[in-house]
Design a protein that fits this description.
Blueprint: E1 2-3, E2 6-7, E3 11-16, E4 19-21, E5 24-28, E6 41-42, H1 45-58, E7 64-70, E8 77-80, E9 93-99, E10 102-108, E11 111-120, E12 124-128, H2 130-135, E13 136-140, H3 152-155, E14 161-167, E15 171-174, E16 180-182, H4 203-216, H5 223-227, H6 241-246
Parallel strand pairs: 3-6
Antiparallel strand pairs: 1-2, 3-7, 4-5, 5-15, 7-14, 8-13, 9-12, 9-14, 10-11, 10-13, 15-16
Length: about 250
């Protein structure tokens, strides 16, 4: 994954539930501020088993996972709120951790002196509620401490960690044509007609402004105002060559 022209400091895999309608394949589409990201693939057997168990625990249907591999304590993710353009309204965001323990830091928007540190040990489940995601940033900061200062669970598994961020996504991409529909798209249902002049209408910049508003605003963020109309842009450059070809 690349963001602002640079490779992000962790490895990425995207998996999800691919459905078939009228002989076309549709994948759940989760958009966020990235230049490009890996193509979504169907669930691997292990990820599918994890997803199904978490669905039992949370009583929430999940169809998308961003899987991230933190090789060392230096790998990190910056302060942000998850972008809810494509996440089913008022659903939870779930993070499952495997491997070495890392600390997630939550920072109150506009009051960064208010923070909470939550250790995420091996085989732990962190549920990020809709309201918490709106009012707090979260991050996993680089851990630059020497080994002598780390606990056994932080040194376990050679210091390597895998996290699965699981979501219920309500926007979908036609893998053949590149057309999108659903909650975060201009076309809300599959039955709507996709006209020939279907294009981004330069809404990629409108989308980034909406993302920025959600990242900086707290309880005052108006979802319908910023996201309700929907966006056709897949990303800020191209999602990948496969989808880019489908849109030509």
């Amino acid at each position: 994954m690349r963001q602002k022209g640079k490779r992000v400091p962790r490895e990425i895999s995207i998996q999800g539930s691919i459905t078939i309608e009228n002989n076309d394949e549709y994948e759940p589409l989760y958009r966020h501020p990235a230049d490009e990201q890996p193509e979504l693939v169907s669930w691997t057997p292990t990820a599918l088993r994890i997803k199904e168990r978490i669905e039992e625990v949370t009583q929430q249907k999940i169809n998308h996972a961003l899987i991230q591999y933190y090789k060392t304590g230096k790998d990190n993710i910056g302060e942000h709120s998850d972008k809810t353009l494509d996440i089913l309204l008022r659903s939870n965001i779930v993070n499952y951790s495997l491997g070495a323990a890392r600390t997630m830091t939550l920072l109150k928007k506009g009051q960064y002196n208010i923070r909470q540190d939550v250790k995420l040990p091996h085989n732990s489940l962190f549920v990020l509620g809709w309201k918490t995601n709106r009012e707090w940033h979260h991050c996993i900061r680089p851990d630059k401490r020497p080994i002598s200062e780390k606990s056994p669970d932080e040194l376990a598994f050679y210091g390597e960690r895998i996290s699965l961020t699981l979501r219920t996504v309500a926007t979908f991409l036609n893998r053949r044509t590149g057309y999108i529909y659903g909650q975060g798209a201009r076309h809300k249902t599959l039955q709507e007609n996709f006209v020939d002049e279907y294009d981004n209408d330069n809404d990629d910049m409108e989308m980034v402004h909406a993302f920025s508003a959600e990242n900086h605003q707290s309880s005052e963020f108006d979802w319908n105002y910023h996201y309700g109309r929907g966006f056709n842009a897949l990303n800020f450059k191209v999602l990948n060559s496969h989808h880019n070809k489908g849109r030509k």
